[in-house]
Structures are given as structure tokens and as C-alpha cells.
Amino acid sequence: MNARHLRARLKGWGGVGAMAAACALAVVFALAVTCTGSVASQAADPHRAGDRTTQAHTADAPRAADDCEAPEKQTLSPSRADGPTITAIKNRPGEKRKLIVGVDQNSYRWGYRDPNSGESGRLEGFDIDLVHRIAEDILGDPDAVQFKAIPTDQRIPAIQDGRVDLVVRTMTINCSRLKDVAFSAPYFKTGQQVLAPKSSPITGYDETLANRKVCTAKGSTAYAKLEEDRGSGDLPASTDISTTVPNQLDCLVRLQLGEVDAVVNDGALAASQAAQDPTVELKGEAFTTEYYGVAMKKDADDLVRRVNQILVDFRQDTATGWQASYTKWLSATMDDDPSASRPPAAPEYLRRS
């Protein structure tokens, strides 16, 4: 499937590298804020979300990961109230009073360093815009952020070890990860897809991957899916999935060097890699459905609720919010159809009894 086909497929959800090797992206959006819970120390109404579709919930926490049916919905309802996590961030002294965020610095137009920006070392992209928005809301200053570039397989350890307050790094919400971290409501929808040279006989996620070397990022949902499917027979047993790298951009470099035959990555990133490198293209349809979310510590209920409220506000802000950021960073590489970048549907709130 070429980039235009992907755009047509993703239409309606809204609207690597730049440093020596191409990197990139394309995306589709879905924002669905969900289920339940309350922070015990909250004095304010925990369900005040600033959105007419917000409803009262009767359960005190999301479903356990062991009872995970729709991982993108296993989050807490929005709230503007401070709690122990946010209070601790606000009480950091002096210059340390910053939000500490794990991000990528190699994903073009998501989180990357633009050598031509005129501001050496400045991170830019859609995820970076979201980080600034969260910092402004919590600390009153969009630049009150300490960015930490972390590889794919260090996203969860960085949260659990307290090295970061949250991770905003094209991170897929899934049931396995919900055992280790908490997620916000989703802010993008995408799916795994195959990237290969245009001249390759590979046609997609199918039998043409037999006897081929496929690259994925360590700790990614792509690798987990390939491992599972090869074991079940849904992927040819002869497919070599042993090549894993710290960051997804490294897979593109391996592909360009001829060290692997294909890359499996989120379609939202793979499609833009194809847009940046004219020698590669997307092959076949997306074969999973995945949602990106902001990841935080499991017990940081107040922070999860606050981020969910920020996502509601980000989506509703037509001047400087989600749509403006999408238009600035993603629309040129993702879509040449203006109708595909329209705002997404209203968030869904899942009521549990």
C-alpha cells in the first residue's frame, strides 16, 4: 500500500531521517476518554471534565490489565484537581520546578531535533507540542520541561524508576503495558504495517515475508506481534525477526543499508518514512489497530486525570490545540486531502457499573 492509499484508509480520524537518514510519520487520530476512578485525596469533583459528554462513574479504578478487553479505554476520567503527584511536581525547588518527560528525538515531526531550525538542540514535533501543553497547564509555563530522550525499550523502566514523570513518545496502549504503567486516553490511532524497498517482492504482512529479515524496535508492539504470529503460524516460520534496534529510526537505516529486507512499525511512523525516502514504500494493509497514549506511574491517579483533562481541552482548542498542531507537523507528510484533517469525533466516556 502506498502512502496515498494509507491516507485514504485513515481518513476521518483527523487531523525519520532529517539527521542523515530519513525518518518520518503519518497518523490518524482517535481521542476516547474513558472509564472511572477517583483520587481519594481529591476535594474537588473528580468528574468535572469541561466536556458535556462527561458522565459520573461508579467504579473507583480502571479494570485490571488481567481483565483487559479494550486497553485504550482503561483510564481514569478527566479532572482538573491537584493530587499528591501533581503537588510534588509543583513543589520542586527553583530551577528543578519542571515537568520531566521522556520523549523521542529521532521521529521526524513527532519528536525530533531539526538541524535547520536555527535553534540547535531544540526538540520539535506533535508529541513535543503536547508536552508543552501539559507543562503549561500544570506549571503555568509551557517551557517548564526537562526533556529526556529515551529509547523504545526504556520507556516503561524510566517511568517505574522515577526518571520521568511521564512519557510522550508514540507509545501504544496495550494490555501488557497496563500491568506496569498507567495511560491517558488515546490521542492517535494507527496500526502496524510493513515498510520495504519499492523493488522488493514483499507484498505485505503475508507469505512473502518467508525467508526475509525483518527489523523492529526493542520493546515495541511490532516485535511482540511478529513473535506471537510466527509462533501461531500466522507469519511464516522462516521469517527472521532477530534484528531489533533501540529506536525505530535505526530500522530504516538498516533497511537502507540492505541489512534487512523489511521493517515493521506503526503505520503512522512507517508511512512518513516512505514519504521521506523515495526508495521505500508501505506494503499491504495495516494488520493491527493501536492507540497512542501518555504513560505515567500506575499510582499517579491525579496526573492521569489531569492529562486526560488536558487532552479534552487540547482537542477542543481550535486555535492552538490538536488540529493546529496536526496541521503544522503532520498534514504535509500525511495527507493531501483537506477533508481528512477535520477534527475527530467527540471522546467517548465508558460507564462501568
Key terms for this structure?
353 residues, alpha/beta, 5-stranded mixed sheet, 15 strands, globular, disordered N terminus, disordered C terminus
Radius of gyration: 20 Å
> What is the arithmetic mean of pLDDT?
79
Q: Write down the overall geometry.
A: globular
Question: Which residues form runs of ≥5 with pLDDT under 50?
Answer: 1-64, 336-353
How large a portion of the residues is in β-strands, by DSSP E? 15-25%
SS element count, helices? 10
Largest sheet: 5 strands, mixed
Helix content: 25-40%
Instruction: Please report the total strand number as a whole number.
Output: 15
**Strand order across the largest sheet:** 5-1-6-15-7
Layout of helices and strands:
Blueprint: H1 3-10, H2 84-90, E1 99-103, E2 106-107, E3 111-113, E4 123-124, H3 126-139, E5 145-149, H4 155-160, E6 166-167, E7 182-183, E8 188-190, E9 192-197, E10 213-217, H5 221-232, E11 240-245, H6 248-256, E12 262-266, H7 267-276, E13 280-283, E14 290-292, E15 295-296, H8 301-316, H9 322-329, H10 331-334
Parallel strand pairs: 1-5, 1-6, 10-11, 10-12
Antiparallel strand pairs: 2-3, 3-4, 6-15, 7-15, 8-14, 9-12, 9-13
